[in-house]
Amino acid sequence: MYGWAGCRDWLHEELRRIAGVAAEDGLLYLAGLEKTVGGWQVACLESVLFAPEEDCAGSIAEKTAVLLARSGWEDVPVVLAMPPEAVYLEEMQLPALPTRELGQTAHWEMAAREPFGGAPLFTSYARQEQGGYAVAAVAVGEAEACRRAFAAAGLQLLATAAPPASFCLLVETDRLCWEETVLPLVPTLLEADGAFHGWDERFSRAIYGAGILVQALPTPGLAFPFAPVRLRGLDLRRIAGLAVAAAAAVLLLVTSADIYRLYAARREARQLQAEVALSRAETNRMEDFRAEEAWIARRDDALRSLSAASHPAAAVLSFLGTRNVAGVCLTELSLEPRQSLQIKGEAVTYDALADYLAGFEAQAGEGGSGAALTGSTRRSDGGIDFTIEIPFADPAEEPAGDVREGEEAAHASME
């Protein structure tokens, strides 16, 4: 079965196995019923010698646990057929009432008779063929003692039963029959010829209570469940497992979404970091360009200021740029605005120094500024440190042509 119907069936827990137990004539009989697609069938028939001890319920429970373990039916619920001496049975005429009210009426009628000296009792009824009802009762205390004994043995006792003396299943080849009811036998119980030959009618008492409880036999019957028996109900373990799986799936989806968002955020962060790095490089290049542009502007301003304020200085600088004398090296230039230009340097010999000064004298003869040696010192290594001072004339006294020529020379020298 698939789809919603299959899911619904999967979420429901169905009672598919039940065992009946009866003690009689020094033997303990165990019968197991199993539900298949075609209905209930007899799947287990076991018997063992049984000698009841003082604690009869405890002995039955222990022997039942052994038989169930031997048959591989350890977790199967059990219905116990009470011994005839523990059951009070009486035929009654009851009014025609709905099932629930009929059961209450039977209980009140039986309680009024006080079969167990007024002790609390369980009652049940069954319709008889000749009319009327068979009403049975068992003492609550004795039934509860049986349930406690089975619980101590690790078994679940669902109900007790009072099989009527007239109930007897008959074997027909591969099935058990009673009136119109048919209970097939599983193939493992059959002989090679396909028939069952080991039938004992006392198994009927063991089958009765289990068959009544799961409605494999006609109901109502003389069974005394301790609580309402649900043959089909929600499987809480499967529902809990499904809830856990659903919660895990939701958590996985949320975690996956968070992981994806984290991945997207990190990828976006990497892109932003790359853009910031590129922008920072562009900014650095722009700052370098602006710094270079500012330096060029300052240089141009300095050249214009120098050309406008000290025209002779421009001509001197132009001359210094073209005057090279072997053995003479300039180390420092000091400009006193509108006064003089001081030149410091080193010469190998005085002859080289004289040749250098001769150039200034030649320039002075052509109308340029003269130069004066203001100091010279011979060092220990033989070299000469010298200082030359070139006075500037007032710009107002210079012809305009000389000024322009000086500016052009200065610009050409700077370039």
From TrEMBL:
Listed Gene3D superfamilies: 3.30.420.380
Transmembrane listed as a keyword: yes
Chain residue ranges for the region called Disordered: 395-415
Domain of life: Bacteria
Ranges that cross the membrane: 206-227, 239-260
Keywords, alphabetical: Membrane, Transmembrane, Transmembrane helix
Biased composition (Basic and acidic residues): 401-415
Protein name listed in UniProt: Fimbrial assembly protein
